[in-house]
Amino acid sequence: MTHSLTIARPDDWHLHLRDGAMLTAVLPETARHFGRAIIMPNLVPPVVTGAQAAAYRDRILAALPNGMAFEPLMTLYLTEDTDPADVAAAHASGLIKAVKLYPAGATTNSASGVSDFNKVRPVLEKMAEIGLPLCLHGEVTDAEIDIFDREAVFIDRVLDPIRKATPGLRVVMEHITTANGVDYVKSNDKGLAATITTHHLIINRNHILVGGIKPHYYCLPVAKRETHRQALRSAATSGDARFFLGTDSAPHTDPNKESACGCAGCFTATNTMSLLAHVFEENGALDKLERFTSRNGPAFYRLPVNSDTLTLTKQDQPVAFPTKIDTLDGPVTVFDPGFPVHWSAP
Ligand SMILES: NC(=O)N[C@@H](CC(=O)O)C(=O)O
Ligand SMILES: [Zn+2]
Ligand SMILES: [Zn+2]
User: Fold this and answer.
1) Which of 248, 254, 326, 329 is catalytic?
2) The domain spanning residue 115 has which CATH number?
3) For the whole model, what pTM was predicted?
4) If 274 and its partner were Cys, which of 44, 128, 142, 343 is the partner (CB 3.0–4.6 Å)?
């Protein structure tokens, strides 16, 4: 039986669009379904200043195909040299909606990130004062910490001390992958939220490693064991306003993924809304999908909910998603959930 679900148009609160030929190829994949997205600033070189963010926003809008509507919500990449006054001016003009903190070396293109958190204290204090959210890649980088423990250790050693030292700082824990992340968000009332990706609702670490290594399931933070995936599903499908969608759709070309040292990132922009409808239906929570994709994020970012809608349709035949997107830089593999999906999006 065919049936459909109409929701307020979704937004993506954590997205990598890259630049140049890659930007041109992947932007329509997001703009087809999403009204807005928080644009990650981890270009090479990173988007550090307000002027760089304005120029990047213009390149994104120039790459948008005619007839497509999409609003990029820009962010600045926090470095130890970031000027609090530049951040405040970029916020006051409406240009940026958040600042992104990457611990130096934690993930793709994070070399310019923060090593000494005391050096960014004046920026964080300014952000608390003006209500500008801090988005965090929440993993420690210490060589002696096991990669599967890096998110939990970050919460204890870095995040909780930062929040205690900077009252009023509004924080989004990006792409949480653990029950520890879910519990930390839930144990705090105000000014703390988390994004959850589509792929972390679907895969656990077995999907990456059992039966041969699957480079297209490798991302950071790396998927954890099944109990953590279940905790993420419960949080996402609960309707709790503190959890919302950030796909972390992160395109890398196939040669860069299928390599002896493969890049981290899953490309999910193309089929995210179909996969989420499947996941929410499986958890008996289709009625909560709109909160996760379209309502909780705007509420946290103090923006209006999109006024138009997206209709998802359940069909008898599984949807045939493209397996790859062609770009002038090379092919990018679309995330394969590993099961048939019957929800289609326009
Ligand atoms: N998530 C990833 O595995 N990769 C992201 C970076 C990030 O969000 O950490 C990327 O830029 O490729
Ligand atoms: Zn990240
Ligand atoms: Zn990301």
Assistant:
1) 248
2) 3.20.20.140
3) 0.98
4) 343
